[in-house]
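User: Show me a protein chain along with its predicted structure.
Assistant: Here is one chain, sequence first, then structure tokens.
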Amino acid sequence: MWPIEKLLPHAGRMILLDRVVSWEPERIVCERTVRRGDAFVEAGGLPAWAGVELMAQAIAAWNGWQMLAGGENVRPGFLLGTRAYRADADIFPIGAKLAVEAVRNFHDEDGMGAFACRIDAPGVHAEARLTVFSPPDPAPYLDPRNSLDPKGTAT
């Protein structure tokens, strides 16, 4: 098992997961304990909206595992969105140990993918289907010269 820091293209406080619990070719389960002082944590806990980022990082960890296992370097990917994110609570409370699962439903050679994700802890459940993009070469997508101007025109 690789440490989570090796699997993600994130650094420092932006790594929101603590560790990988299990990994399979089509599935990953990661863990996060909600602690005071961590990124995005408020007085009562971690807002439920942050669950989308936890899910996206679980997918990134799955992808990182794939890359490292294949002898490649971890590369950035992009969260394209979700059609429906449902959480049965407004926050993940302080001290909650969250199990964050991502199961690959679809992935193509160009890097497009879809994952069914869920977060579970005692008394708390969230789920979503996330669409992601992890191109073989992310550099053109990270180049600021390829961004849109304020009118939405490619520059």
